[in-house]
TrEMBL record:
This is Zinc/iron permease. It comes from Natronolimnohabitans innermongolicus JCM 12255. Keywords: Membrane, Transmembrane, Transmembrane helix. The chain crosses the membrane at residues 12-30, 42-62, 82-100, 124-146, 182-201, 207-224, 236-252.
């Protein structure tokens, strides 16, 4: 269930399928924008950061709050702890992706001046890609089986498409040729896999809530990690425009 975000699903399987395709194919976009577009990639990434961050605070956090009751169905002691500290799942997601970022950064610093070897010899690459594959698969699952209405599914899809654009940039910087050759295809396919699972299988409320908490923490961390630490490379006006406009859209609908 995804009751806090929308109205009951009223049809539109084709539209949902198209949204799944849009979100998945973000990973396959060219590395550079056409010069004629007049928009730098850095500005686009700052815009994406604003959109995904405001979506997390205005929709994902409230959704988690409404779903805390689902955690009470778990083992009594564990359920009580999770209900009282529900946002610990968000922190766990943030900490997990921070750890992955640090491992990837350290690995890259050691290999920066060397040609990348065989993909099979890059455990950090595979750990990083596998973690984001699960992340992407859950996004695909929510698009299909989150019981969102057409309008709210579109809002979620837009926010996640922009968010994955930022993730794609970070993965390209960390893993370069390996990511371009294989990693981006794995992440794009993961969205489709998650969507396919959503067609035939429904997660329990507890599992959905736990994964939603981890996703929320990941969205917050991955959305802002390139905006706050390196302000000389970010574009505040684009970040503010993205967050401001999308906040108005979210609050108006």
């Amino acid at each position: 269930m995804w009751v806090a975000l929308t109205q009951p699903f009223d049809g539109g399987a084709v539209a949902t399928a198209l949204l799944v395709c849009v979100v998945a194919l973000v990973h396959l976009l060219p590395e550079t924008l056409p010069i004629s577009s007049g928009v730098s990639r850095r500005s686009l990434l700052s815009l994406a950061g604003g959109i995904s961050t405001v979506y997390a605070f205005l929709h994902l956090f409230p959704e988690l709050e409404t779903r805390r009751g689902a955690l009470e169905t778990t083992e009594p002691a564990l359920g009580s702890t999770l209900v009282q500290h529900g946002y610990a799942l968000v922190f766990l997601g943030l900490a997990l992706f921070y750890g992955l970022e640090r491992v990837a950064t350290i690995s890259r610093s050691h290999e920066f001046d060397h040609e990348l070897g065989s993909l099979a010899d890059e455990p950090v690459f595979w750990i990083h890609v596998s973690s984001f594959a699960v992340y992407n698969a859950f996004i695909g699952y929510v698009l299909v089986a989150g019981e969102t209405g057409t309008e709210s599914t579109a809002l979620f899809a837009v926010a996640m498409a922009f968010h994955l654009l930022g993730n794609d940039e970070a993965m390209s910087q960390h893993h370069r040729e390996s990511y371009q050759r294989l990693g981006r295809w794995v992440l794009a396919a993961a969205v489709f896999v998650g969507a396919a699972v959503g067609v035939v299988y429904a997660l329990s409320d507890v599992a959905f809530t736990a994964l939603l908490g981890l996703l929320t923490g990941g969205v917050v961390f991955n959305a802002i990690k390139d905006e706050l630490p390196r302000t000389e490379k970010s574009r505040f006006w684009a970040f503010a425009a993205g967050s401001g406009v999308y906040a108005v859209v979210l609050l108006a609908l």
